[in-house]
Amino acid sequence: MGRQEKIARSVVRAIVKTNGAKKGSRNPLALLLALFSAFFSLYQLILRKIRPADFANLRRKHWAVSDEDYVQSFQNEEGQVAQDSLKSIGDMGFSGSTFYSTADQKYLVKSIPRHSEHSFFRDDLLTPYVQHMATHPRSLLVRICDFLGASGPSIGRIFRTAPSHHIVMDNIMYGREEAKKNGDADWEKWDLKPTSYFYPERDIAGGALTSEATKDQLADEFHDKILLRRDEAEGVFTSLEADTKLLAEHNAVDYSLFLVRMKAPQPEAASHPSPAESSMVPTDPPAVPPSPPSWRTGVASADGKYIFRASILDFFWAKHKVQPKLMTLLITLWNLVVAKHGHMSITTTPDEYRERFLKMCRGIVEIKDD
What we know:
- GO terms for molecular function: 1-phosphatidylinositol-4-phosphate 5-kinase activity; ATP binding.
- Pfam families: PIP5K.
- There is one protein chain.
- By secondary structure, the chain is of the alpha+beta class.
- It has two domains: about 5-15 and about 30-170, Phosphatidylinositol Phosphate Kinase II Beta, CATH 3.30.800.10; about 175-370, Phosphatidylinositol Phosphate Kinase Iibeta, Chain: A, domain 2 (2-Layer Sandwich).
- Helices cover about 35% and strands about 20% of the residues.
- It is built from twelve helices and 14 strands.
- It has helices spanning about 5-15, 30-40, 50-60, 65-70, 115-135, 155-160, 175-180, 200-205, 210-215, 230-250, 320-335, 350-365; strands at about 45-50, 85-90, 100, 105-110, 145-150, 165-170, 190, 225-230, 250-255, 255-265, 300, 305-315, 315-320, 365-370.
- The strands form four sheets. A six-stranded antiparallel β-sheet has the order 1-5-6-4-3-2.
- A hairpin with a 5-residue loop joins β11 and β12.
């Protein structure tokens, strides 16, 4: 079993392990061997759920996801933990973290390897996030269903051969594989951030010092418009305002808008197809509630040509943590000594980042008045 498979198995075991297992069922020798094996493991760390009651409450009471359905996504058809319970899908976004997908595509598992990021989420943002998601059903913040952290010492944790923390989040690309099987056009996706900031990979020597592969990891640009009716546009702007206010209040910067676009089916008798009637829009967890249409299930453009989904991702970089402080100092010195390029998206202030982020979001929306 390779590194990726061992990491995946650790995650799955933390999700599906039986909370009601009897204590003391192992004999002392078996327990000692298990602890010995865990300590010397390079990749298969013992993970525990962090604040499990809070996430379970969100899933059950606010997102209508039953425990049985949630756990089933991490098991095979026989209800067992298998090697293919999670599938590695590499680096899907700008953050550089490792991603896994459940076999049914409903959930993604993302590693949070940096201490500054997982400690920020655990110590500063977790409680406000849980409260916000419970009171803002149409929030665009990605729905985090579980937060896992390494438990106990191990060689793999000391030498960082495996990530010590992971989040489980819903997958707004859910349904893509089924759509492809049905012969539908492939879905388009963008990882959007304000591009007016200083990006060394792009802006130093015109990008000549960096490979194209590295530059491809920078934030995307959406060279089009999302055509929305006024009430839909005002609704998403209201959600974005509330979500980014929460992030700014807790010093988060560098988050992104993950945007998905699908070609809408064109029924002969309907000039404006309803996303709720489209086979592209799931009506089962993790997409609801609220009921469709929503930005998790899909919002139809005003011209009926496309269905859009969107979610705010990667809100773990906080200005008050040690690593962000060091990066801010380095960029400040760079601007003073070498060349004045301005701040990066990871070194600007939370309020300034929020302002540019909201301006970017408003800039890709065009309002159609009926």
